[in-house]
Write a structure and sequence with these properties.
Blueprint: E1 5-10, H1 20-36, E2 41-44, H2 58-67, E3 73-80, H3 86-99, E4 104-109, H4 116-121, H5 129-144, E5 165-169, H6 173-181, E6 185-187, H7 196-206, E7 218-226, H8 230-248, H9 268-277, E8 281-284, H10 286-300, E9 304-308, H11 314-334
Parallel strand pairs: 1-2, 1-9, 2-3, 3-4, 4-5, 5-6, 6-7, 7-8, 7-9
Helix pairs in contact: 1-11, 3-5, 6-7, 8-9, 10-11
């Protein structure tokens, strides 16, 4: 087992009986807390038309978080690139990088981050997404390059900025692309566990080194809910279960507080479906999640674990990230040191 970095994926969760301003305040407070705990990065994910997630204007929210913190890297996990013009994203992230030098990440994905009707409202063309997505990444790289200064179309701000691009995926398609382009790869294990092992294998075996990233770099996003006891963590996890139950029921209401008996909320078929989606979830006390993380890392050998926590009470969410930090530190003490890139 090798050492791994620890990071945060925040969906800017909207909770019942709370305002969206409360959501943003909690996200900033969480970012400040995990910065103190030496988490590597704090990513926000683009979603649309969901009453439970407030990170639709992802670039704006990244600026808010970066402005309220000092050292932690802040970025997108991710920007759903086919929803946007490559030039606009280059300008937005060039602006962010100019304001917060060396702290901005650009993770990009091809999924809509929403339903089909909303995707259409965003202007997506489903006929050419798979074909155009690699081209959009190349366009971003061109806009960020200093050599683009002679082009008729320039990203200002953006040109000459050192903004690392990460390719996101929830299937094997983007694993092939990330390997071919020599870029880091982040997999959505927190909701799409089925193809993660295959995607990692494809990425590693087919990686073509690039000047910026001479070695493959893997990030796995997982669900993480930790508390003082296993029993408390399991109760906190019922918010996570309800959130995913709402997805399969097409009910996008805000996150619900934990319940005493989740079996009164879902039926057996729904339970099996949700638990399969959440296969890579670390839930329990420090010792329990430490064992779960160790088993996961021995199996997948990722460079970074990105934890997302669907926890209703903000203080308990912060406490959970503290517990994961302690657990990861204990594991990393015994793991051999491995070289990683600096981004």
């Amino acid at each position: 087992m090798k050492n791994f970095e620890l990071s945060v994926l925040d969906l800017a969760p909207v909770k019942q009986n709370k305002t969206i301003q409360d959501t943003f305040n909690d996200s900033l407070d969480l970012a400040r807390e995990v910065e103190k705990l030496d988490y590597k990065r704090f990513w926000l994910a683009e979603h649309h038309n969901m009453a439970s997630i407030a990170s639709s204007a992802t670039s704006v929210l990244i600026g808010y978080i970066a402005n309220g913190t000092k050292t932690i890297k802040v970025g997108s996990g991710g920007i759903m690139l086919p929803n946007h013009s490559s030039l606009v994203i280059a300008e937005q992230f060039g602006t962010l990088e100019s304001l917060f030098p060396g702290r901005i990440d650009l993770g990009v994905g091809r999924a809509p981050g929403t339903d089909g009707i909303t995707a259409k409202a965003l202007g997506r063309n489903p006929q050419n997404i798979n074909q155009y997505f690699p081209q959009q990444i190349q366009e971003l790289q061109k806009y960020f390059s200093a050599e683009n200064s002679t082009s008729l179309v320039r990203a200002i701000p953006g040109e000459g900025c050192d903004i690392p691009i990460y390719i996101l995926g929830s299937s094997t398609d983007s694993a092939w692309l990330a390997a071919k382009m020599g870029l880091p790869y982040a997999f959505a294990g927190h909701f799409a566990p089925e193809m993660m092992a295959a995607a990692f294998e494809i990425y590693r075996e087919n990686y073509e080194p690039s000047a910026e990233f001479p070695r493959p770099y893997l990030i796995s996003c997982v669900n993480g809910i930790a508390a003082e006891t296993d029993e408390e963590a399991k109760k906190l996890a019922t918010t996570l279960y309800q959130a995913f139950l709402n997805i399969i029921r097409n009910d996008r209401k805000p996150y619900a507080p934990p319940v005493e008996d989740i079996d009164k909320v879902w039926n057996p078929a729904e339970k099996n479906y949700v638990l399969n989606m959440l296969r890579y979830s670390f839930i329990g006390s420090k010792e329990t999640v430490k064992k779960q993380m160790e088993q996961f890392q021995k199996l997948f050998q990722v460079d970074e674990m990105m934890i997302t926590a669907h926890i209703y009470e903000h203080d308990k969410r912060v406490d959970s990230y503290k517990i994961f930090r302690n657990a990861a530190d204990e594991l990393n003490v015994t793991a051999p040191k491995t070289a990683t890139f600096t981004h």
